[in-house]
From TrEMBL:
Pfam families, sorted: GST_N_3
Name this protein carries in UniProt: Glutaredoxin
InterPro entries for the chain: Glutathione_S-Trfase_N (IPR004045), Thioredoxin-like_sf (IPR036249)
Listed transmembrane segments: none
PROSITE patterns: GLUTAREDOXIN_2
Source organism per UniProt: Salinivibrio costicola (Vibrio costicola)
Length: 125
């Protein structure tokens, strides 16, 4: 079973590499705003998880440089995810808003949040 997972993981990563969306063309102010927003969020992921790939592809499509932590191989990230989010489940987006921290699971919810949060940035001229 481990060999099958390993092979499927490699296939997922190859497909991700071959289907990387191009980021939008952002002006300097929009790019700076995206970078500033990206400092508020961190994606906890497993590298070959198809739902994590879905979130990474969506962030690329938005032009959002999303920081990611591998909760499978990085034990410190795994502990952060478990202690902060309450469970080891990926993808999980850690959202820092001031002193408040929120943990969001489910790829579709994460993508909807990122789209909603970055729309004002991409529509600003």
């Amino acid at each position: 079973m481990g060999v099958i997972r390993w092979i499927l993981g490699r296939i997922i990563l190859v497909v991700e590499a071959l289907t990387k969306p191009k980021p939008p063309k952002l002006n300097a102010d929009q790019h700076q705003a995206m970078v500033a927003f990206s400092k508020q969020v961190t994606l906890y992921q497993f590298q070959a998880c198809p739902f994590c790939v879905k979130v990474r592809q969506a962030s690329r499509k938005l032009g959002l440089p999303l920081a990611a932590k591998d909760a499978k191989r990085d034990m410190a990230a795994r502990r952060e995810l478990e202690q902060g989010g309450g469970k080891i489940k990926v993808p999980c987006l850690r959202i820092q808003q001031g002193d408040e921290v929120k943990w969001m699971y489910e790829s579709d919810d994460i993508i909807a949040y990122l789209n909603q949060a970055t729309t004002p940035i991409t529509q600003a001229d």
